[in-house]
Amino acid sequence: MSRHQRVQSSSEGHKEPHSVSLKVLRLSRPSLAYQYPLPQSGLSDAQKAPIKAALSCPSSDPDDQFILSPLLTLPPAFGAAYVGENFSCTLCANNELDSRPDGGNVVTSVHISAEIVTPSLTVPLDLATSISADAGHTDLGSSLEPEKSLQWIVRYDLKEEGNHVLAVTVTYTEPHESLNKEQQEGPGASSTRVRTFRKLYQFIAQQCLAVRTKSGDLPPLAATDETGVTKTRLMRYVLEAQLENMGEVPICLETVVLLPKPPFKSTSLNWDMSSPECKERNSPILNARDVTQVAFLLEQRMGDLEGEEALRKDLARDGRAILGQLSIEWRSGMGDRGSLSTGWLTSRRR
After folding, report:
1. How far apart are CA 82 and CA 80, in angstroms?
2. 89 class by beta-carbon count within 10 Å (0-12 exposed, 13-18 middle, 19+ buried)
3. Of 19, 171, 285, 317, which one's alpha carbon is 20 to 30 angstroms from that of 126?
4. pLDDT band for position 130 (50/70/90)?
5. What is the pTM for the complete model shown?
C-alpha cells in the first residue's frame, strides 16, 4: 500500500509466532474501469482493428468515444485519506493453527481494541461487528476455531491534517503444549496461556478542500419606525469564499451554507438561490485543482437585543464583527460523503 506504513511495535520482537494473525484492510468504494478504444482515423479498412478488441467490456453497440465502462475496479492501493471524510477499515483476526481430529487448537477469549492517534489527541474506536468467515462468531471475547476468522469494522471522521496512527491490540488465550503430562496434572497447572500483541498502521490525512475567505462592508441600512423616523442603522456585510479541490478525484459540492452569528441573517448568492425561473439546481463539480467562488450577504436583524449587545462588545474589543461559520458538504465521484466547517469568520477591522 503506497501511502500506508505499518510501524513495528515492540511486542513483535518475540520470536515465537503467534497463533492469531491480524489483517487490516481499508474499506473504500470501487471506481468505474476505463477502456481505451484503438484509434481508427488514418487507417485503411484492412489495417483497422475491431473496436471491441480494445474494450474491457465489449457490447453489441460499442461507443469508441466514451472511455468509461460498466465494470467496477477495486482500489489497487491504500489510496488517499482526506480531512472531512470518513475513514473506515476492517480488522480480521485469523486462527493460524491447523485443525486437529480431537478438536484442539481452539483459541479462546479473543479481544481486539483499536484507537487512532491524531496530531493532537488519541481517540478510542468503537468496533462494529461484520460478517466473518465463520458465520456466527463476531462477538468480542468469543472462541476462534482453527483456520477460522473474526471480523470487525472501525470508523473515524478525519478532522485534522497530518500523520495518523491506527493502533490495534489483540489479546487471546491459546493452548500451550510446552508443559509435560506430570506438570499438567499437578496443582495449579494450566494447559493454556494468554498472549497479546499490538500493531500500528500509519497514514497521512490530506486536505481535500481549501477554503479562502474575504469579507467586505456594505453601506448600512436605515431602519425606520411606523412614523418614518430613523431609529437605527443596520449593519451589512458581504462574505466571499474561494473553494479549491486539493484532492486527486473530482467532487460535487452539495451544500455550501453560511451559519450566521446573531444578530445577522445570511442570504446565499450562489447556485442554490431561490428563483421562480430556475427549478433545478446545478451543483458545481470540481475536478482536481479546480476553483469555485461563493458569496453570502449578511444583514443585521432588527430587534435582536442579545445579538446586538454581543456585536457591540466585539466591535469595541478589536473592531471586528463575528459573522458566522461556513459549512460545506460534498460527494466524490462514487458517492463518498465529506463535510467541513470553518472557524468563526470575522469582518475587516474598523
Report:
1. 6
2. buried
3. 19
4. low
5. 0.76
**Residue whose C-alpha is closest to residue 74's, from 31, 23, 105, 19:** 31
Partners of 268 in beta bridges: 296
| Spatial contact of 1 and 78, defined as CB atoms under 8 Å apart | yes
Q: Are strands 192-206 and 209-224 parallel, antiparallel or unpaired?
A: unpaired
In terms of DSSP bridges, do strands 251-260 and 322-332 run parallel, antiparallel, or are they unpaired? antiparallel
Contact 340, 36 (CB under 8 A): no
Residue-wise pLDDT for 8-46, tens only, equals: 554 444 468 899 999 999 998 888 888 776 666 666 666
76-111 tens-digit pLDDT: 778 889 999 999 999 999 998 887 777 678 888 899
Task: Give the residues across from 106 on adjacent strands.
Answer: none
Backbone angles phi, psi at 182, to 5 degrees: -65, -40
Instruction: Centre a 10 Å sphere on the Cβ of residue 125 and count the other Cβ atoms it contains.
Output: 19
Residues 6+ apart with CB under 8 A from 142: 110, 150
Give the gyration radius of the chain's Cα atoms: 30
Q: What residues contact residue 287 under an 8 Å CB cut-off, 6+ apart?
A: 245, 250
Residue 263: is the preceding peptide bond cis (ω within 30°)? yes
**Residues ≥6 apart with Cβ < 8 Å to 35:** 54, 55, 56, 57, 67, 68, 69
Helix (H) or strand (E) holding 34: strand 31-34
pLDDT of residue 260: 96
Q: How far apart are CA 49 and CA 348, in angstroms?
A: 65
Instruction: Name the residue among 141, 148, 140 with its Cα closest to residue 105.
Output: 148
How far the first Cα of the chain sits from its last, in Å, is: 52
Query: What average pLDDT does this structure show over 283-299?
Result: 94
Closest CA to 161 of 248, 83, 80, 245: 83
DSSP label at residue 41: T
Query: Do 233 and 221 touch, CB atoms closer than 8 A?
Result: yes
